[in-house]
């Protein structure tokens, strides 16, 4: 049998090796891999722990024409394709013998192509009359992100806990006043060493029904993805850390203030920071009067941060902007510190943040 040559290096021979249960050919010089007919599909099925349905080549994007590379088996020109319609890494395929040449840096995207395609299909959904009507009536954004792989039990539990606590005190005037007196964060009391526990308890209190609904909605749409990549315990831990950071920031802004501070918004702002660092591929809708537009997570939270900075330096309106900004900064720091680990453990998230991913907004 004649020696197969690397299509990329030309002069270097391909060596037989085993990868994911398949016997394939590898170039030891450039790391490229040659898969003969159906070997790629079997590899993808092995990695994804089950049949992948359609063959991976049925989801190729547009043909990019004849490649400069030759097939190691039949020596005919390979043809170039985008791996997916919305993921523009180039794959070289032989249309005569159905083999595939995959460069070393393309392998991860090919291995994860079924999940990558499903994720891009979800991310690139268009806004509809349903999303428009929802945001027009509620003034809440609609999120476009990956579907979590595990049930977000902590996120759901936090929402339930906040709702239960709110119901226990809000509808009774005496209970409302007593709860705020004992458990809302009052910077002037903290300065005197009193009610130190309130830096935590204030995170679970809300001043109105809309205050509660707004915070819990954002916790619902943001929390599930963060809990998915962090795990239940670490998600809860970092949520509380962000809540503490928000309380600390609120105190620093005005330690003499006697205005009680309540709400989960500071802790949730910390989740915004982490979300921004890890889920830049996500989109959230933004509405300007009656016009709805999908924005990247970056632009959405830049606008949100700008509104909070403006609110803090202008006339106060009862919103604890210092807590929001403090929580957000804490989340950014946590997100930056953990980013490499999160990306390593979640290859699809890494791929979606690459320039090859075509995100339509």
UniProtKB/TrEMBL annotation:
Top-level taxon: Bacteria
Example of a GO MF term: serine-type endopeptidase activity
Residue ranges constituting the Transcription factor zinc-finger domain according to the UniProt record: 5-45, 70-110
All copies of domain Peptidase S54 rhomboid, residue ranges: 194-338
Pfam family, one: Zn_ribbon_TFIIB
Subcellular location: Membrane
Entry GO terms, CC: membrane
Protein family membership: Belongs to the peptidase S54 family.
Name of the protein in its database record: Rhomboid family protein
């Amino acid at each position: 049998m004649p020696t197969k040559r690397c299509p990329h290096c030309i002069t270097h021979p391909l060596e037989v090796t085993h990868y994911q249960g398949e016997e394939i050919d590898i170039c030891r010089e450039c790391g490229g891999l040659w898969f003969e007919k159906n070997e790629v599909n079997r590899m993808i099925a092995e990695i994804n722990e089950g049949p992948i349905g359609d063959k991976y080549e049925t989801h190729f994007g547009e043909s990019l024409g004849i490649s400069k590379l030759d097939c190691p088996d039949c020596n005919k020109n390979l043809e170039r394709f985008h791996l997916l319609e919305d993921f523009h890494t180039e794959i070289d395929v032989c249309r005569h013998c159905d083999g595939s040449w995959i460069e070393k840096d393309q392998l991860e995207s090919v291995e994860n192509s079924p999940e990558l395609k499903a994720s891009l299909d979800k991310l690139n959904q268009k806004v509809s009359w349903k999303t428009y009507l929802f945001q027009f009536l509620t003034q809440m954004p609609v999120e476009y992100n990956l579907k979590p792989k595990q049930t977000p039990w902590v996120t759901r539990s936090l929402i339930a806990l906040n709702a239960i606590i709110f119901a226990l005190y809000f509808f009774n005037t005496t209970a409302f006043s007593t709860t705020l007196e004992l458990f809302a964060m009052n910077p002037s009391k903290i300065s005197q060493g009193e009610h130190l526990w309130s830096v935590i308890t204030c995170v679970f209190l809300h001043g109105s029904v809309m205050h509660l609904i707004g915070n819990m909605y954002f916790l619902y749409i943001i929390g599930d993805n963060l809990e998915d990549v962090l795990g239940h315990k670490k998600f809860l831990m970092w949520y509380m850390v962000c809540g503490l950071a928000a309380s600390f920031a609120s105190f620093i802004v005005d330690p003499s203030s006697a205005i009680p501070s309540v709400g989960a918004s500071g802790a949730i702002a910390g989740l915004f920071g982490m979300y921004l660092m890890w889920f830049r591929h996500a989109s959230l809708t933004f509405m300007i009067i009656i016009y709805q537009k999908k924005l990247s997570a970056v632009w959405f939270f830049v606008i949100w941060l700008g509104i909070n900075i403006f609110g803090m330096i202008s006339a106060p309106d009862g919103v604890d902007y210092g807590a929001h900004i403090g929580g957000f900064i804490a989340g950014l720091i946590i997100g930056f510190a953990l980013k490499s680990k999160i990306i390593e453990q979640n290859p699809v998230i890494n791929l979606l943040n690459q320039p090859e991913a075509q995100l339509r907004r």
